[in-house]
Write the structure tokens for this entry.
Amino acid sequence: MDNRLAVTLLSSIAQEARLDVFRLLVQAGRQGLAAGAIATKLGIPGSTLSFHLKALSHAGLLTARQESRFIYYAANYEAMNRLLAFLTENCCTGEQACRPDLDCYTKSEEG
Amino acid sequence: MDNRLAVTLLSSIAQEARLDVFRLLVQAGRQGLAAGAIATKLGIPGSTLSFHLKALSHAGLLTARQESRFIYYAANYEAMNRLLAFLTENCCTGEQACRPDLDCYTKSEEG
DNA sequence: TTTATATTTCCACAATTATCGAAATATTGC
DNA sequence: GCAATATTTCGATAATTGTGGAAATATAAA
């Protein structure tokens, strides 16, 4: 992943409405939610939501699939995974502290 | 960390010049780099850089310390750590796949 | 105090982003 | 085809963000 792509990904979630949308879809799981359901749950007008869904999709953080009259949007966990890997590798170089505190990770002492 | 703060943090690195600055400072280590050095290395006019440094500092991703005539900016690894933790916890819920692929982490098989 | 250096603030302007109603475009069922 | 529903596109507008030269501020050295 290059800086350009990272900025696109980051920009797509660096906005309250879009971060809300993405978090909602992360919770919703692989099957996702129809656009209308997202709009209702978050209280966002359809046209505004559509604008944000486009940004998230364009960045690759969402997938969309048509099902009958509905369009289901779902979080692309792999894309988010790649973003997290980029940030961990490129924005924390040489700093052990700068890693998510996963249970499998044991901190080494530092001066 | 709430959504609001996360958006502030994300916005601060969701821009090419600022992501460049942050990555440079991550490489530079705890002692950081003087503003002028950053401007020279990245070829950014002083006033423009100052604008971006303010955004990063305001988000808490940089620390600044005066030393003689220079102001040294350094990456705040802890803040980035917290952001990564937020993203891992809140934007990947229920999805084991959505975690940085650290060497200490062993993937479980998935369907 | 004067000069030099480092950085920021100010300002004007350009560019991008966000909002949302209305109209347009599907898709489905009658 | 017509009506109903779901979503997107269009268009106008507001708000925010990014850029960089010039001036202001701060620190240091002569």
Remarks:
- The radius of gyration of chain B is 17 Å.
- The first strand of chain B starts at residue 33 and ends at 34.
- Confidence is low (pLDDT under 50) at residues 99-111 of chain B.
- Residues 15, 17, 45-48, 51-52, 55, 66, 68-70 of chain B lie near DNA strand D (CB under 10 Å from a C1').
